[in-house]
Amino acid sequence: MATLLSHSQQRRPPLLRQAIKIRRRRVRDTEDPLPQPTREIEPPSHHFSPEQRALLYEEALYTVLHRVGRPEPSHVKEASELLRYLQEAFQVEPEEHQKMLQQVQELEKPVFCLKATVKQAKGILGKDVSGFSDPYCLLGIEQGVGVPGGSPGSRRRQPKAVVRHTIPEEQTHRTQVIDQTLNPVWDETFILEFEDINSASFHLDMWDLDTVESVRHKLGELTDLHGLRRIFKDARKDKGQDDFLGNVVLRLQDLRCREDQWYRLEPCTETYPDRGQCHLQFQLIHKRRATAASRSQHSYTVHLHLLQQLVAHEVTQHQAGSTSWDGSLSPQAATILFLHATQKDLSDFHQSMAQWLAYSRVYQSLEFPSSCLLHPITSIEYQWIQGRLQAEQREELATSFTSLLAYGLSLIRRFRTVFPLSVADSPARLQSLLRVLVQMCKMKAFGELCPDSAPLPRLVTEALRTGTVEWFHMKQQHHQPMVQGLLEAGKALLGLVQDITGDLHQCQRTWNKLFHNVLKIDLFSMAFLELQWLVAKRVQDHTAAAVSGPVSPEMGESLFQLYISLKELCRLGPAPSERDGVLALDSFHRWFQPAIPSWLQKTYSVALARVQRAVQMDQLVPLGELIKHSTSAVDLSTCFAQIGHTAQQLDWPDPEEAFMITVKFVEDTCRLALVYCSLIKARARELAAGQKDQGLAANMLCVVVNDMEQLRLVIGRLPTQLAWEALEQRVAAVLEQEQLQNTLHAQLQSALAGLSHEIRTGVRTLAEQLEAGIAKHIHSLVGVRESVLPEDAILPLMKFLEVELCYMNTNLVQENFSSLLTLLWTHTLTVLVEVATAQRSCPLASRRLKVALQNLEICFYAEGCGLPPEALHTATFKDLQRDLELQAASSRELIRRYFSSRLEQQAETTTEELGAVTIKASYRASEQKLRVELLSASNLLPLDANGSSDPFVQLTLEPRHEFPELAPRETQKHKKDLHPLFDETFEFLVPAEPCQKDGACLLLTVLDHDTLGADDLEGEAFLPLRSVHGLHGTEEPGEVPQTRLPLTYPTPNGDPVLRLLESRKGDREAQAFVKLRRQRAKQASQHAPQPGR
C-alpha cells in the first residue's frame, strides 16, 4: 500500500509538512510545467531488528511456559500449539526454536500473584440492633492445603475465622469498614502472592465490626423484635467480639486468568443459610519476570511490540491466502496476547493504546481494512485520561496520529490509483479510511496531543486538489503521441479530454457522494474547476493551429470529435446561475467555428454515399410480412437518424448560427429524399427491364411506393429530431416568425409535397391496372341471363376484387393501401353510375347493380381494415344507392312508394290554401267493412267563371292493385257551393290486412263538375288506412273522431317515381298509373292558387 523510504522515523517532518502542500494556481501560463512529484511519507516500519525479535520471542515463550489458571473457552489450551504458532509468527528455525525454548525453561520462574479486587456485597445479614451491619473483609491465601470437594454445596462447613486463625497475620489483608449497610461497596484491590497454584486456596471472611455500646444506647436504636433478641444475644457474648457474616473459599487452580463474578457467602451453621453475595474480581499476574525484555523495558512497550509482531504475521498469512484480514486475531494470537497482558497486569486503556499503535503502524506498510482501526480508536476515546500517560507515551501516541494522518492524506491524494473502481470494494475502503481519519481527528486525545493540526476537511481538500493536478499531468504524459503532428496531437488531446470526462463522471456518481457524506467536501466541483482550466489552454492552442489553413476532412473529423467531447465535459459543470465567475471553457465553441462548413459538407457527402450504396444493393423485396418496405428504406431511415444525431451532438450555442446550421441540415435532408426517389425508381426500372412477369413488376412498384411512404414518415419526424420547437424559442429574439416559416417549414412542406406526389403517382399506376378489370366485370352484370340470381351474378366481380385487393394489401403499407382503395372506390362508383343510368328502365339489371353496390361497400370496408364509413358514403354513393333502390323495385312497389310519399306530403301540409275535407273513418273488424262518412268540404277554389264551383268527391282505395275489386265511389254534386255539406256514408268491404300496409290510403279527390268538358281538380286528400279507428281492434266502441284533411296538389316538377315508372314502356299498369297522375298534375297546374288569395 505504501512505499518504504530510507528516511528514519526520528527525522520525520511535522504534521503540516507531512500533509500534502498544494499551491493553488492563480496564473496559468501557456506552458504548464509538470509538477514536482510530492515526496511520499515514510511509514513507520513494523519490522524489528534480530536482537529485538530475539527478546520478543523469549518474552512470548516465557509467557506460554508460565501460564497459570484455567484457559478461556475460546482460547487454545495446548501449550505445544501456542509454541508452534510463535515459531511461525517469528519465523524461527526448529533448531533455534529448541535452543531458545531450553534457555527460557532454565530461567527463574516469576513470582505468581493473585490480584484480588473486592468490589461489593449485597443482601448480607444485619447483625446490629438497627438491623444493619458494619461489614469488613479479611482475605488471604492459604498455601499447602487444598479445599476439599468440588462445588460449594458439597464442601464441609468451614469454622469461623479461617483467615484470622489459619493465615499468618502478615499475609492477611483487610478492607475498610462500611458503616450501617447491608450492601457495602469497597472496590479495593490486593496483591496476594502464592507458590503452587495447585495447593493454594483463596479465603475471604466477612465480619460485622462490633463496638462497645451501652444498653441505653442500644435500646434507643431498637426497631423490632429481632433487635430485642439481638440485645439479649450480645449480652451473653464477649464484649467487642465481631459477628461472622460469611465466607468465600476458592481453589486457585479453578480460577481463570481473569475472573469477575458474584460469589455466595457461605455460612458456618444452618441458622442463616442465605447470607448474601460478594462481587470479586481476580487476575493471575506475574512479578519479577526473568526475561531480558521485562527487566529492561516497560510492560506496555513489550506488549506493544509483541502485538505488532503478531498482527503483522496475521495480515501476512491472509495475504498469502488471497484473502483480506478482517481484524480478528487467530485463537493462538488472541490467547498469547491475553496471557501476556494479564501476566503483565496491563490496564484496558494501555491494551487499547497498544492495539492502536500496532494496528496503525502495520496498516501503513501492510494492506488490510482500515475499519480495523475504529475499535482501538473508540476504546482510547472512551478511556482517555491524559494524566495516566507518561511523556514518552504521549509523544508516541501523538506521533502515531500525525503519521497515520499524513499517510492517509497521501492515499487520498492518489485515490484514483489506490482505490480504482475496477475493484469492487474500493469505495467502501476509501470511505472506511475517511471515517477512521474523521474519528481520529475528533478524539480528545488528538486535540490535546496535536493542537496545531489543521482541520481535516482543509487538509483533505488540498490533498485532493494537488492529486487532481498530478493525475492530469500523468494522463497528459500517457497520451503524448510518438509522432509529432496536428492529427496525432488532436488524437492525444481527444483521449485526454475523454479520460477527464470519465474521471468526472466517476467523481459525480461515486466519489463526490462519499466525500460529501463524510467530510462535506464537494470533490466534483473542485475537480471540474481544476481540470477545465488545465484543458482549456491546450484545446485553444490546438484549434488555433488546426483551423489556420484549409480544414481537411480528416482534420475536420478530428476537430468534431474533440468538440463533442468538450461539450460532454462542459455539461458536467455548474449552470451559469450557479457559478461564481467565468469558466475557461465558456464560449469554447468559437474556437471551432471555422470548421463548421467542413462538418456540414462531410455529413452530406457521407449520407449521399450511403443512400447511393443502399439503393444499388436493394433488390426491392419486402423485408417481411409485417415490414413491407425494402432494405434501402431502412438504410435511409438510419442515415437520416444519424444526421439528426449529428445535429443534436453539434447543438451550437449561438442561436442565429444554430438556426442557419439547422436550415442547412433540413435542406440537405430534403435533397437526399428527392435523390432517393429518383434512384429507387431507376432501380425499379433496371430490375424490371427484360422481365416478362407483370406480377413481378407490380411487386416492385408496391415496394417502391412503400419505401416512399416510409421516407415520408421519416421526413415528417425532422422537427422532432432537429428540435425545432426549442430552436424557435432560442431564436425568437433575433428572427421573426415569418422568417422561420419561409425557411424551415417551407422546406419541409415542399419536400413532403414532392414525396406525396411521387406516392400518388405510384398508387395511381397500380390503380389503373385494376380499374379496367373492375369496369369489365360491372358491365358484364347486365348481360347475365335473367335466371341467374343477383348474388350469383356478382361473384366474378367479387372474386376479382378479393384476389387483387388481398394482393395489394399484402404488398402495400396501410397508408398506400388506403390511398389505392380510395382511388378504386371512386372509379367503381363512377362505373356503377354509368351502368345504372343506362339500365334505368330494367329492374333486373338494377337489382344486380344494387346487390353489387352492397357487396362492394362491404368489400371496401373490410371489417374496419379498409376505408372508413365516411370515406365510403360519399354524395355519389348516397345518390346511387337511392337511385338503385328505386330502379330495382317493381312497378307496384314504386306505386306504393308514390302513395307513401303523398301521405308524407299530406302529413306535412298545415295550410288550407286549396280547401279541406272533413270525414269520419272507422273499421268494423267483425264485418270487415271500412265505413267512411264524408261530412263536408270547405274553402274550395272557385273554378267556374261565375266565381263558384260545382263540387263533388271521388273516393278510391289506393294502391289499386291492393284493392282490385273495389270500384271508386262518388258523392252527390252540389251546385255553386264552395262549402258543401255532403253528409254521405260509404262502406267498403275490405280485409284488414291490406289496409295495414305501408302506402295504403283513402284517396279523396275533390272535383268541380263541368257539364261540357272534363271535370276540374279542386284538390286531393290522402287518409292513411292504418290510422283508421278500429282497424287494429284495440279501440273501444264509441264516437268516431272527425278528421280534417287539407287538400293538396301533385308535385309540379314531377315525381322521380313517376319518371321511373314512365320509363317502363312495356308495363301497362305502370303506364296507366302514370297517365292518371300526369292528368291530375296537368289539372293542378291549370288552377294553381295565386299568392295572397
How would you describe this protein?
The chain is 52% helix and 12% strand. It is α+β, with helices and mostly antiparallel strands. It has a four-stranded antiparallel beta sheet, with no helix packed on it. Strand 14 (1001-1008) and strand 15 form a beta hairpin. Helix 13 runs antiparallel to helix 15 (426-442) and helix 17 runs antiparallel to helix 18. The longest helix has 44 residues, at 737-780. The N and C termini lie far apart (123 Å).
Topology, element by element:
Blueprint: H1 15-18, H2 50-65, H3 79-89, H4 94-106, E1 111-122, E2 135-143, H5 162-166, E3 173-174, E4 185-194, E5 200-208, H6 215-221, H7 225-236, E6 243-251, E7 258-264, E8 277-287, H8 292-296, H9 299-320, H10 331-343, H11 348-363, H12 374-383, H13 391-413, H14 415-418, H15 426-442, H16 444-449, H17 456-478, H18 486-519, H19 523-546, H20 553-571, H21 596-617, H22 631-650, H23 655-688, H24 694-716, H25 718-721, H26 724-731, H27 737-780, H28 790-793, H29 795-811, H30 814-838, H31 843-861, H32 869-872, H33 875-887, H34 891-908, E9 916-924, E10 929-938, E11 951-958, E12 969-970, E13 981-989, H35 992-995, E14 1001-1008, E15 1016-1024, E16 1042-1046, H36 1056-1063, H37 1068-1086
Antiparallel strand pairs: 1-4, 1-8, 2-3, 2-5, 5-6, 7-8, 9-10, 9-16, 10-13, 11-12, 11-14, 14-15
Helix pairs in contact: 2-3, 2-4, 3-10, 9-10, 9-11, 11-12, 11-13, 13-15, 13-17, 15-18, 17-18, 17-19, 18-19, 18-20, 20-21, 21-22, 21-23, 22-23, 22-24, 23-24, 23-26, 23-27, 24-27, 27-29, 27-30, 29-31, 30-31, 30-33, 31-33, 34-36, 36-37
